[in-house]
Amino acid sequence: MKEMLFVGRGGQGVVLASQLLADTLARAGYWVQSFPEFKAERRGAPISAFLRWDEAPIHRRYKVRECDVLVVISASPPSPEIIGCVRPGGLILLNRETRFPHVGPYEIARVPGSFIARRNSVLSSEGRPMGNVAVLGACVRLLVPDGLEFLEQAIVSRMGTRAEANVVAAREGYERCTVQRRVAGDTAVEPATGPAVSGRRQSHARFPVSRTDSLLNHTGSWSEDRPVLTGECTACALCALFCPEGAIARTDHAMVIDYLYCKGCGICEVVCPVRDAITMEEVSA
Ligand code: SF4
Ligand code: SF4
User: Which ligand is nearest to the CA of 281?
Assistant: First the structure.
């Protein structure tokens, strides 16, 4: 049996990716199991989904804690804690164009999923690239090389009239997947240090979640994009009403964003009634 972990942010199609791959593997003749894990926070917050597949019925009924394959749907790099879930000899698939430090006993493969999504207009309702399907194309190439047709069938079955661009993105992900070679100069990604709580440090969660006072949980570290206010902003404060983190506020007739807590969900941009008053820009990794 193989076990797989999908990670990303709420709104990036992490759960959908896991379900589509499960459907693909089922069509290819495997027994499959797929289920997600949600915390209290959704959009913009860390999300994981689990997938098992085997040639025989699967009897495990608990979440995947160690995996053979880690699929990172989000374009931001995985934390050392998440990489630590990969079994020796396992595979990490990244939504990424550039090299990722390769220092562990695992293989690394890359596919520019977000780039492919943008080029094929596979976008979220807020206009962000949905790299999940292109990453799935790469997954299929690495796991079941003869299974692209099954992935296409799974996409069409799930998405109906919206399937066409997603199928094209999946094919492109399949074509553009590359397995990274090891380089002697690579160094490990350092673990981030958590904030002090009651005089002691929090132990590292493998999947960062809100486990304490919301003021101590710096959700800004989840951010892949961040909102930037422009001169068009009228300080009407509508965005502040909708911000799930309370990260945007009006002071002295101007809006201020607290990037320590802004998780980059983009809700403020969606609800803003003034054209170009707020734009989202990528946070560099
Ligand atoms: S960004 Fe938009 S919603 Fe927020 S205060 Fe400015 S104009 Fe209002
Ligand atoms: S400021 Fe905007 S992007 Fe940041 S958390 Fe609030 S709604 Fe989301």
Answer: 2
**pLDDT greater than 50 at residue 281:** yes
Q: Model confidence over 189-201: pLDDT tens digits?
A: 554 444 433 333 3
- Domain membership of residue 200 (yes or no) is no
Statement: the pTM of the whole predicted model exceeds 0.85: no
Give the phi and the psi of residue 169 in degrees, each rounded to 5: -65, -40
Last residue of a domain, one of 158, 179, 200: 179
Q: Is the CB of 237 under 6 A from ligand 1?
A: yes
What is the position in ligand 2's atom list of the atom closest to the CA of 278? 2
Residues 69 and 119 reside in one and the same domain: yes
pLDDT in tens, 18-28: 999 999 999 99
Quote the number of domains for the chain. 2
For 45, 190, 220, 222, the CA distances from 210, given in Å and listed in that order, are 10, 22, 12, 11
